[in-house]
C-alpha cells in the first residue's frame, strides 16, 4: 500500500491577515493602555486629562476669570485742601501740622504725621495744644504785624539754651537763646527758648536759628520758631508745652525732609 506524503498546510492570504491583525491588536493594546493611563491620571473614566483640568481651573470657578487686584489709595493728611497739599514736597515724609482755631485766634493744635510710600500719611503723635501769634494768622506776613505766617515751610535746624534732647537735627546750644520779660497776658517768658526749631520762613536753611539773614528783606519779618510754650500768645512763633517740644525734637529726622504745615483751619482747607 503506498502512502501519500503529507503536504504542509498553506496559510492563505486571509488567515495570514487575520493573524497579523491579532498580533497588532495584542501588541498595541499595552502601549495604548500605558499612554491612556499617563494622560488621564486624575481624570474621570474616559474623561478630560488632568493637565487639561488644571488649565481649565486657572480661570476660576465655573470658567470665570480671576478677580482683578485691588488698588489701595494712599491716605492724605486730613483737613488739608489741594492747594495746601500741593505745597508739601514729594520728598517730605514728615509733617508737623499746626491748625489754628480761627483766623484771628492765638490758640492752635499740633499733630505730627509721617508718610509711608504705600499707605500714605498717618499720625504718629497725639493732638498737642499750642499757641500762635496774638493776632492770629496771615498769608502776607510782615515785621511787627503780630501774626503767624500761613504756609508750608521746611524744618532743618534746631537749638536752645539747654542741651539737645537727642534730636537728629543740627542743634546749636548757647546762652544767646535767652528769653526775658513778660508775655501778652503777663506771663513770664523765661525758658521759652530752652528748645527751639527754626521754621524756614525768610531765613537761610542750614544755619543756626540765631542767624538773622532775611532773604526776603527785613520788612517780611523772620525769626519764626517752634519753641517752648510760656502760657500765652506769641509774636509770630508757634509754642508747644516743654515735654512736647522735647518729644518733637526727638522725632524730627532730616532724612525724612520734615516740614511744618501751619495756618488757621479755614486757610489750610484751600
UniProtKB/TrEMBL annotation:
Residues 55-70 have a biased composition (Low complexity). The keyword Signal applies. Pathway: Cell wall biogenesis; peptidoglycan biosynthesis. PANTHER family: BLR0621 PROTEIN (PTHR38589:SF1). This is L,D-TPase catalytic domain-containing protein. It comes from Streptomyces scopuliridis RB72. Keywords: Cell shape, Cell wall biogenesis/degradation, Peptidoglycan synthesis, Signal. The active site is at 227 (proton donor/acceptor), 237 (nucleophile). The keyword Flavoprotein does not apply. Residues 99-262 form the L,D-TPase catalytic domain. One of its GO terms (molecular function) is transferase activity. One of its GO terms (biological process) is peptidoglycan biosynthetic process.
Amino acid at each position: 500500500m503506498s502512502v501519500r506524503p503529507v503536504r504542509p498546510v498553506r496559510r492563505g492570504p486571509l488567515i495570514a491577515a487575520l493573524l497579523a491583525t491579532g498580533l497588532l491588536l495584542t501588541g498595541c493594546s499595552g502601549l495604548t493602555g500605558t499612554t491612556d493611563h499617563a494622560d488621564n491620571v486624575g481624570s474621570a473614566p474616559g474623561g478630560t486629562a488632568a493637565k487639561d483640568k488644571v488649565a481649565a481651573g486657572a480661570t476660576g470657578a465655573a470658567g470665570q476669570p480671576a478677580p482683578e487686584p485691588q488698588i489701595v489709595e494712599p491716605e492724605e493728611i486730613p483737613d488739608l485742601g489741594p492747594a495746601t497739599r500741593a505745597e508739601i514736597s514729594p520728598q517730605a515724609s514728615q509733617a508737623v501740622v499746626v491748625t489754628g482755631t480761627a483766623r484771628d485766634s492765638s490758640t492752635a493744635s499740633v499733630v505730627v504725621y509721617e508718610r509711608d510710600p504705600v499707605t500714605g500719611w498717618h499720625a504718629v503723635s497725639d493732638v498737642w495744644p499750642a499757641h500762635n501769634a496774638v493776632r492770629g494768622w496771615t498769608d502776607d506776613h510782615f515785621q511787627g504785624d503780630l501774626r503767624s505766617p500761613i504756609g508750608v515751610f521746611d524744618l532743618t535746624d534746631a537749638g536752645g539754651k539747654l542741651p539737645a534732647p537727642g534730636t537728629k537735627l543740627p542743634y546749636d546750644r548757647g546762652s544767646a537763646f535767652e528769653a526775658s520779660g513778660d508775655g501778652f497776658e503777663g506771663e513770664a517768658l523765661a525758658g521759652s527758648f530752652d528748645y527751639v526749631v527754626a521754621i524756614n520762613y525768610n531765613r537761610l536753611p542750614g544755619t543756626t536759628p540765631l542767624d538773622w539773614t532775611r532773604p526776603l528783606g527785613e520788612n517780611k519779618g523772620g525769626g519764626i520758631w517752634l519753641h517752648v510754650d510760656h502760657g500765652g500768645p506769641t509774636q509770630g512763633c508757634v509754642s508747644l508745652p516743654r515735654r512736647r517740644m522735647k518729644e518733637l525734637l526727638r522725632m524730627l529726622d532730616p532724612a525724612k525732609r520734615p516740614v511744618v504745615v501751619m495756618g488757621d483751619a479755614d486757610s489750610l482747607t484751600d
